[in-house]
Amino acid sequence: MKDTISFGTDGIRGRADLYPFTPQALFYLGSAFAYWAQEQYQNSSPKILICGDTRVSMDRIKNDLIAGLSKFSVTIIDAGILPTPALCQLMMHDKSIDAGLVISASHNPYVDNGIKFFGKNNCKLSAQDEARVIELYEYFVKNSEQLGSSDKAQIYAWQTADKTYQRLVTSHFPENFLEGITVVLDCSHGATAAVAPAIFKSLNARVITLHDTPNGFNINDDCGALHPEKLASEVVRWGADIGFAFDGDGDRVIAVNKHGKIKDGDDILYQLLALPEYAQEQAIVGTVMTNQALERALNIQNRRLVRAAVGDKYVFAGLEQERLLLGGENSGHVILKNYLPTCDAIFTALMVILSLMHEKNWDFITFEKFPQVLINVPVAQKKDLAVHPFQNIIQEYEQLLEHGRVLVRYSGTENLLRVMTEGPNYDCAQHVAQVLATRLQQALSLDI
Description:
Layout: E1 12-15, H1 23-41, E2 47-52, H2 58-69, E3 75-81, H3 84-93, E4 99-103, E5 112-119, E6 123-124, H4 127-142, E7 154-157, H5 161-170, E8 182-186, H6 195-202, E9 206-210, H7 229-238, E10 242-246, E11 253-257, E12 262-263, H8 265-272, E13 283-287, H9 292-300, E14 304-308, H10 312-322, E15 326-328, E16 334-336, H11 345-359, E17 372-378, H12 390-398, E18 405-410, E19 416-422, H13 426-445
Parallel strand pairs: 2-3, 2-4, 3-7, 8-9, 8-10, 13-14
Antiparallel strand pairs: 1-5, 4-5, 5-6, 10-11, 11-12, 15-16, 17-19, 18-19
Helix pairs in contact: 1-2, 1-4, 3-5, 5-6, 12-13
């Protein structure tokens, strides 16, 4: 067994049947997190909340983690299947909960899984906290005898966690405010499959649900936030007022207007600025992937776009640094910091409807985007793109894309090189992206 682990953009992620999702590795990881929680909160018996999405591997991974957690005197609260943001909301609601684990690979297919780590301070763990968990993991791998043979944890099932989350979300909105509104929800066969329709119905919406029958293997399978095309056709077919597609763990949302036009995270951020609570915001936080057209639209309003690295934790860091309330990614991660320090797709969707009502903008008119082309290139090794020959290749094609942008980066969760081009002319952006992706794939395959 390997003696180390690594954190990506959002926790640990990979194939569910491979390291570090093996029973022994998960055992040591659970032990490391339990010790970290005791140490971090100076609590000899911290409370740790656990939930997950609908993948077939979720229960096995959860049980292996619990086996490791149980080597310490902790209280484990099992909330079952819940969206990732529900865990954050429940932790903020119950101040006695110290830390949390979400077992999910978000938008990835069922063969993958992941673990997201949370603490009571701003939810997501800091880089220093992650480094400490890694250090403890490595220690226990080499000193397993320190863990002893007896179990010390108390384990409880929180049977009504979903109802508590539903109540917490709906408390922010007027009673029955969705009366007369028809909404189509694509639940991606994931963690929102039960709770999202329940929340919208409780606010008196007419709800049509898609992809809400998870079987452990169909999560994100040609549906949800990464594949909103079916949602778009169903919104038109039902004559709905709006539609929303969530990802597997419910922290991403993509919208579709009543005409079937897809609206991504950039559109959502722009629309949310119509709400009174954001009227005084002088800027929003996006990422390096945020469309240039949003930046121009903000400039017209005398507002700024602050660009962060890709990943909602970097968006949150930007919000903290700039003292702002609203930020997100075009992929559908949206943070409303006055509500939660992380993304909640269901809450965001409801806030979008509230903003459309406020502005009387049911056509969901925002701004005209620059054409953007994204190509994912599988890579065996993530080599440094800032050195020769990769940097030279990228600079060569940047010069070809006049009045546009080229962005080349590695995925933080998968072995992929992402090549993005953006500019006023789609054909030019597509050509540059395709040729650049091919050139880089060839160069990366060489033994340099």
